[in-house]
C-alpha cells in the first residue's frame, strides 16, 4: 500500500498482474476529486475507456453524466474508478483472478480518497467489494455500512441502456446519495 498518489500511480503503469494486460491500450486508473466524499465504483473499462484511459466515457458513462446533471452532481467533484483497470475482452465480466489481482489498487485508492459514501455500480462492484452473498436486485437502494463507509449499491448504468425501467431506480438511488451527502454539511 502506498500513502501517496504518485507512488500508487507509478506502481501500476507496467502492471502485468493478470492476463488483461495483454490487450490493453490504456490502464484506466480512475478520475476525479482525490478528496471526494463520494466515490463511484464500476466494473471495468469498455472500448471507449480503453482508448482514452478514462472511466465511464462511453454510452453508459454518458447516461451516468446525464443523471449527475439532473441531480446537480458535478462529475469533477466525485471520484470514479473500477474493479479492474484494464478492459476485459468483449466487455465480459472480469474473472475472479483478474479482480483479485487488481483489487489492492482500488483498496489503496479508497484509503487515499477517504470517501464517506461509495456507490457500487452493478453486481460486479457489489460482489467484489461487499461479498459474493449480495445480489444487486435485492441490495440496490439500501445503505450498507462497513468500517465507517456508507455503501449504496445501484444498477450499473449499462443496465439502464438495456432496460429503461431501471432508470427511475437508478435516479432514486443517486438521489439518496445526494441527500445523505448534504446531510453531512
Ligand atoms: N463500465 C464500467 O464498469 N466502467 C467503465 O469505466 C465504463 C463502463
Summarize this, please?
This protein is of the alpha/beta class and 185 residues long. The chain contains eight helices and six strands, in the order αββααβαβααββαα. It has helices at 5-12, 47-52, 59-71, 96-113, 123-130, 136-139, 157-162, 166-184, and strands at residues 31-32, 38-42, 79-82, 117-121, 144-146, 149-154.
Notes on the protein architecture:
This protein is an alpha/beta fold and 185 residues long. The chain has one domain (17-184): Uracil-DNA Glycosylase, subunit E (3-Layer(aba) Sandwich), CATH 3.40.470.10. Helix content is 44%, strand content 14%. It is built from eight helices and six strands; from the N terminus they run αββααβαβααββαα. The protein has helices at 5-12, 47-52, 59-71, 96-113, 123-130, 136-139, 157-162, 166-184; strands at 31-32, 38-42, 79-82, 117-121, 144-146, 149-154. A six-stranded mixed β-sheet has the order 1-3-2-4-6-5, sandwiched between helices. Strand 5 (144-146) and strand 6 form a beta hairpin. The relative contact order is 0.17. It binds uracil. Uracil binds at residues 28, 42-46, 49, 55-56, 58, 60-61, 82, 158.
What is the fold's blueprint, element by element?
Elements: H1 5-12, E1 31-32, E2 38-42, H2 47-52, H3 59-71, E3 79-82, H4 96-113, E4 117-121, H5 123-130, H6 136-139, E5 144-146, E6 149-154, H7 157-162, H8 166-184
Parallel strand pairs: 2-3, 2-4, 4-6
Antiparallel strand pairs: 1-3, 5-6
